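Methods — Computational structure assignment.
A single polypeptide chain was analysed. Its primary sequence is given first, followed by the predicted tertiary structure written as structure tokens.
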Amino acid sequence: MAQDSVRLLGLDVGEKRIGVAVAYPDGIVVRPLAAINRSSISYDTDKVVSLINEYNVELVVVGLPISWNGKLSHQAKLVKSFTRWLTDASPVRVKSHDERFSTVEANRLLIDAGQKPSRNKGLLDSASAAVILQSYLESTRFRS
């Protein structure tokens, strides 16, 4: 993959890991990367900023786990806090995007591809990040 053609980074922020995916500007190819094992807020944001620089990212999309009733759960509040830290550390824009059902969809896609997501949680987290990024790209196509 040519690094100069990747412009979007998707994140699925959890308490133990951050799933990561990248996308070409046209949004046709979204690819999961290795998940980041969480350590500290500074370590976590430094790892994301490193990926931003490595992949020449122009926009980071962070999945926001909004509950069924539209309210922010405890996890959503943690993600919003992480997003604020990342926004302060990031050289590029950071946006939140509704991630409802992303893990369910990622799990289904991995099983359909013959993977066992229950054995590799990092793979599931990054697949979820890819689903979040794809959802974001699709939502922006309809607004254009």
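Note: Residues 121-143 form the longest helix (23 residues).
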